[in-house]
Amino acid sequence: TVVNHRLWIGANGRLLYSNDYGKTWNESIIKGGYGFRRPEFINNTHGWAGTGTGLFKTTDGGQSWENVTSWADIKVDKYEAPRKIHFCNAKTGWVLGFFAIYYTADGGETWQKVFDYGGWSFDFIDDKEAWMVGDNMLAHMTDGKNWIKISPLPNYKSDPMLLPDIPYFTAVDFIDHNHGWIVGMNPLIIYTPNSGQDWYKQSVPEELVTPQTTCLTGVFFFNSTTGWAVGHDGYILRTTSGDDTTGEKFHITTGLFDFESPFGLLVLLGGGLIITGLTVYLIIVWHKKQQHPS
């Protein structure tokens, strides 16, 4: 999340922020919190951050955090982990959990389960439309209220033999109502130019397709052509023709680099992406291969 040039990230369980475009980082300490994932801020003051089991909120720009105790009232088999957070304003928001999607209209005082399936990630196009991915599941919301499970799964186009028998989705990014990308295991990148009516598989470098398959965990596009995907072991893939449906090869980079760009500052950290400023930086947190995406 970026708020007036301050970058907020969750990295290796810690909540960090930078005031100088990522040159230096400071840790925000939250009493009773650990295992933080990427935080969500809507303005200079109001933000939320999730842990493996809890949810925290700040109203003073991260100087102090309070435990959203109502989250503990959510009853599931063991615990509910807030994996992704999205707020439209200080009152209205959604949290994607491991078991379901939850909605609040009062700033987190109370929560309503609005979808009986959890997942790894969701992406909001606006306050009413969003997409969610989880393992071999895809869901779509178009009215700001009701999530619809996509069944059957997308009818992939191009190179079907390279797809897993059951798709394993980990992240999704839409730049508008029509154009979106999903990444996942195998590694998998699929693209839709028409709001999910058709999905086209896009190719990846051959060195990523191994017996111990790389899992892509994050994806972000500036526009319909230029985008990045990141994955385990520090892999970064980049394309300048992301709307190509003929098997575009992504360009692979494994390391830290920066280059001038008119689009702004892009930060990728363990699958998270942030934009601001005038230069593009790619920051990688290196991971061993895991059974599940982080």
Kindly describe this structure:
The chain has strands spanning 2-3, 6-11, 14-18, 26-27, 40-41, 47-50, 55-58, 66-67, 84-87, 93-96, 101-104, 112-115, 121-124, 130-134, 137-141, 147-149, 156-157, 169-174, 180-184, 188-192, 199-201, 216-221, 227-231, 235-239, 251-254, 257-260, 265-269, 272-276, 279-282. The protein starts with a strand and ends in a 12-residue tail after the last strand. Helix content is 0%, strand content 40%. It has 294 residues and is mostly beta strands. The model is unreliable at 158-165 and 248-294 (pLDDT under 50). A hairpin with a 2-residue loop joins strand 27 (265-269) and strand 28. The strands form eight sheets. It has a five-stranded mixed sheet with strand order 17-21-20-19-18, with no helix packed on it. Strands 1-2-3-4 form a four-stranded antiparallel sheet, with no helix packed on it. It has no helices and 29 strands. The chain is globular, with a radius of gyration of 18 Å.
Short description:
The chain is mainly β and 294 residues long.
